[in-house]
Structure to design on (330 residues):
């Protein structure tokens, strides 16, 4: 196969999953200088993709769904891509790529529809693997001649992610001379959560003269956590529901640290080089070996002495505020 000039990557799930796919784009660019990368993701992840230097163009899945299968296939065909990689398997996308006559169509062998729509199928199991999600993504590049297994350190340096500078609205939450620590207590059900009581203890333990605490979340999440995380004083700022995703990325990029469970903001913070503290259960497949943040200053916390077969909620609640405070200060 000739060296491809244009590759499409498809990852149409959550923000955290997209963040852990960006190093894949970086590795392709490193191994194939001059290649063009188009990324297909969900509409709400577009602000993330705009921050990645390795993504030349981004298409929202919803744009393709809105025009119908025939027009979607025609649009993919008109891109003139040499290859498409279904990082997250989605049956409709695989069908559109097939009908669009993209020459090289790569997917996992564990989806039956890929046997009908993909001409390169890579055999591996994400559920039973000990590799990190970002490393598992790289396995799908074997048909393109990329057969290596990069370290997490190497992949962390390949995300190509640069947050935009803060706008006026974001600057209003910042205070020069303070250490800005973002607390992202909820996860919209995507991860096992630490608990608002634990976040309250952590906030109370941090020096108000030194720290500015920024609590983030969606508008709906803010309605939940505000009942518990209040009454601390002017150094604790409730940002929940007040920022777009693009502005949240700006805020993260202008801060010093972030504490969260395995969520999109945690992986954004890790890519921005923050002290990103992730709170995890040791239970497979949600343990940090699979989903931990990757970045030079990122760290995943797991309480010691936990039975991996136990209750994940008990696992994560066993992480003490003192452990998190130590990780923030180290």
């Amino acid at each position: 196969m000739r060296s491809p000039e244009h590759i499409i990557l498809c990852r149409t799930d959550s923000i955290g999953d997209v963040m852990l796919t960006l190093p894949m784009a970086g590795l392709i660019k490193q191994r194939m200088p001059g290649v063009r990368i188009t990324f297909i993701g969900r509409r709400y992840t577009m602000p993330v993709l705009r921050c990645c230097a390795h993504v030349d163009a981004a298409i929202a899945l919803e744009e393709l769904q809105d025009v119908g299968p025939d027009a979607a296939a025609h649009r993919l065909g008109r891109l003139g891509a040499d290859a498409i990689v279904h990082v997250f398997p989605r049956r409709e996308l695989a069908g559109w790529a097939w009908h669009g006559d993209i020459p090289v169509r790569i997917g996992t062998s564990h989806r039956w529809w890929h046997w009908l729509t993909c001409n390169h199928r890579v055999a591996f199991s994400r559920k039973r693997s000990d590799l990190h999600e970002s490393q598992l993504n790289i396995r799908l590049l074997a048909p393109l001649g990329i057969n290596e297994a990069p370290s997490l350190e190497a992949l962390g340096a390949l995300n190509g992610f640069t947050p935009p500078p803060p706008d006026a609205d974001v600057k209003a939450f910042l205070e020069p001379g303070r250490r800005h620590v973002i607390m992202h207590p909820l996860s919209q059900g995507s991860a096992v959560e630490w608990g608002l009581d634990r976040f309250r203890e952590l906030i109370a333990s941090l020096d108000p003269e030194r720290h500015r605490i920024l609590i983030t979340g969606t508008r709906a999440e803010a309605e939940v956590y505000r009942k518990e995380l209040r009454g601390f004083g002017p150094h604790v700022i409730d940002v929940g529901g007040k920022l777009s995703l693009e502005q949240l990325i700006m805020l993260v990029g202008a801060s010093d640290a972030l504490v969260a469970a395995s969520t999109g903001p945690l992986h954004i913070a890790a890519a921005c080089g923050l002290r990103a503290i992730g709170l995890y259960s040791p239970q497979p497949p949600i343990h940090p070996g699979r989903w931990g943040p990757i970045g030079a200053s990122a760290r995943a916390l797991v309480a010691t002495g936990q039975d991996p077969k136990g209750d994940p909620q008990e696992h994560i609640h066993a992480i003490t505020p003192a452990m998190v405070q130590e990780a923030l200060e180290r």
Summary: The longest strand covers residues 36-41. The chain has two domains: 6-156, 168-329. The mean pLDDT is 96.
